[in-house]
C-alpha cells in the first residue's frame, strides 16, 4: 500500500508540475461551421501561444505580473505552492517508506512521517483542484454565454485534464498514507 501510494504521489507530483507549466489551460474553440482553421490559440498561466497551421508555434510570456487579472495571479500562486508541497510530501513519503523496515524502535517516528506525507498529499490535491476546476467552470460558463463573442470562446485545454488526473492521484496517495 505504501509503495502504491508512493507511485501515485510521484505521478501526481509530475502531473502537477506539468499542468503548471503547460500553456494549454484555455484553447480556442471552433464554434462556427468553418472547418478551415489557420490558428489555434492557447492560454496558460505563464504565456499565450499561437499555432499557425500546426507548423509554426509562437509563444509570448506575459509582460507584467501586475497587469494580470487577479484570478490568474491567485491560480499561479496556488499552483506554485502545490508544486512545492507535492515535492515535499513526496520526499516525506520516501523517508517514511524507506525507514518502515528499520524495526520496532522507530515505528512511532516513521508513522508520523507517513501521516504527514498523507496530509500533505491531500492538501496538495486540494490546492491543484481549486484553480483547475475554477478555470474549467469559467470556460464552460463563457462558452455557453451568448454575450461572449465567438472569437473569444475557449474550450478546456489539456492542462486542465492533467490537473484533474493529478488531483485524483494525489488525493488517492493521501488517502492511502492517512
TrEMBL record:
GO MF term list: structural molecule activity
Entries under Pfam families matching the protein: PMP22_Claudin
Location(s) in or outside the cell: Cell junction, Tight junction; Cell membrane
Keyword flag Nucleotide-binding: no
Transmembrane segments: 74-97, 109-136, 156-177
Cellular-component GO terms for this entry: bicellular tight junction; plasma membrane
Recorded topology in the membrane: Multi-pass membrane protein
InterPro entries named in the record: Claudin, Claudin_CS, PMP22/EMP/MP20/Claudin
Keyword Transmembrane applies: yes
Keywords of this entry: Cell junction, Cell membrane, Membrane, Tight junction, Transmembrane, Transmembrane helix
PANTHER family to which the protein is assigned, alphabetical: CLAUDIN (PTHR12002)
Function: Claudins function as major constituents of the tight junction complexes that regulate the permeability of epithelia.
Family: Belongs to the claudin family.
UniProt name for this protein: Claudin
Organism: Rhagologus leucostigma
Encoding gene per record: Cldn8
